[in-house]
Amino acid sequence: MKPILEMKEMVELIRTITNMYNHGWDERNGGNVSVLLEEKTVKEYLDPAKVLREIPTGFEAPELEGKYFLVTGTGKYFKNVQYAPEENLGIVRLTDGGKTAELLWGYSDGGKFTSEFPAHMMSHVARLKVDPQNRVVMHCHPANLLAMTYVHDLDEKQFTRTLWQMCTECIVVFPDGVNVLPWMLCGTNEIGEATAEKMKTARLVVWSQHGIYGAGKDLDETFGLIETAEKGAEIYMKIAHLPRVNTITDEQMHLLEKRFGVKARAGYLN
Fold first, then answer.
1. 215 neighbors 238 (Cβ within 8 angstroms)
2. Residues 253, 264: contact at Cβ < 8 Å?
3. I need a labelling partner for 225 at 20 to 30 A (CA). Which of 16, 212, 235, 252 fits?
């Protein structure tokens, strides 16, 4: 077997998690990430027959039967992942219609996957139906997006349009827009189901007064989605109290659509 810490997805996740922490997105144990792994990749590093223990998930996801995930642990500080990955990360395989997670590696201190595991898995199910190449679900607490939910209308169209107007690249990076949930109790199946429903139409879902969920084909894409939305929110929070003299117009955003070959979410531009 190859050394597990040399697996490409492992290396990239540790690097990304460290970057997220350094950006201030994941204070203490705030935030979580899950990566869908190919079975053939897992078999290069682990024996799938060697199950360390079984962990009940508390939900069902038959669409993910037999799927492997690299997932951050509950209560784990992102700043520590690079120093002790085997304690802070785990690789699990879903069985029993998603009701059981077989631990194949990690959580060496007796821990388990993030408390937001239901929201992650339900979001994976939703995004895979839209894009079979989706591999990553990422949750974090970017300060400006969080602040924006206190002072901006939570209507999804208006929230999206404001972000698009803040930075030229926003409509290019997330033309599908940003969906928004009102405050809900975290770590529950209910918020997982609500997030998955929103994931059907956008790769970014804001949890009001909490943070954001992003989904993508790989860690770079998903990180970049959140990073770009957060930059838009940062600019908004800097100018929200000031009279706006200039903006990016709908006509200009249509030019960006043509230039970069993207299509804005239907009905969001005039």
1. no
2. yes
3. 252
> Read out DSSP for 89-132?
EEEEEEEGGGTEEEEEEE-TTS--B-TTHHHHHHHHHHHHHH-T
* Joined tokens for residue 252: 């200009």
210: helix, strand or coil: coil
Q: What is the pLDDT of residues 162-185, one digit of tens each?
A: 999 999 999 999 999 999 999 999
Classified as helix, coil or strand, 66 is: coil
Structure tokens, 174: 């997330």
Q: Residue 135 in contact with residue 214, Cβ under 8 Å?
A: no
Q: Which residues are the active-site residues?
A: 116
Q: Give the closest residue to 63 by CA, choosing from 138, 158, 160, 134.
A: 134
Please state the CATH superfamily assignment of the domain spanning residues 1-111 in this structure: Class II aldolase/adducin N-terminal domain (3.40.225.10)
Q: Is pLDDT at 1 greater than 90 in this prediction?
A: no
Q: What is the C-alpha to C-alpha distance for residues 117 and 112, in angstroms, rounded to an integer? A: 10
248/257 Cα distance (integer angstroms): 13
Q: Which residues contact 63 (CB under 8 A, 6 or more apart)?
A: 98, 125, 128
Looking at the chain, the whole-number percentage of residues with pLDDT higher than 90 is 99
DSSP string, 223-267: HHHHHHHHHHHHHHHHHTTS-------HHHHHHHHHHHT--PPTT
Nearest to 178 by CA among 116, 144, 226, 125: 226
Cα dist from 127 to 9, 32, 270, whole Å: 19, 17, 28
Q: How confident is the model over 181-227, as pLDDT tens digits?
A: 999 999 899 999 999 999 999 999 999 999 999 999 999 999 999 99
Class of domain 116-270: alpha beta
